[in-house]
UniProtKB/TrEMBL annotation:
Belongs to the nicastrin family. It is found in: Endoplasmic reticulum membrane. GO terms for biological process: regulation of signal transduction. Keywords: Endoplasmic reticulum, Glycoprotein, Membrane, Signal, Transmembrane, Transmembrane helix. This is NICALIN. GO terms for cellular component: endoplasmic reticulum membrane. InterPro entries: Nicalin (IPR016574).
Amino acid sequence: MFTLYDSTKAKLNIYQVASVTFDLLLLLVLGSYLITLFTFLVITTRGLDDLISLFRRPPSRKVKTA
């Protein structure tokens, strides 16, 4: 049920679009591609140790009191 105002004649266009499943699948594929590309580039330029160190917590800096 549609109510149209200010016109004696109106045209309503309804389009069928792709589902949200397609968008989520595309996001998953692109995300996987980017993660793979990032991992490959870091390993080839810096090495595996630097890749692992990116995800480690930095050592805490404790202030020594005198």
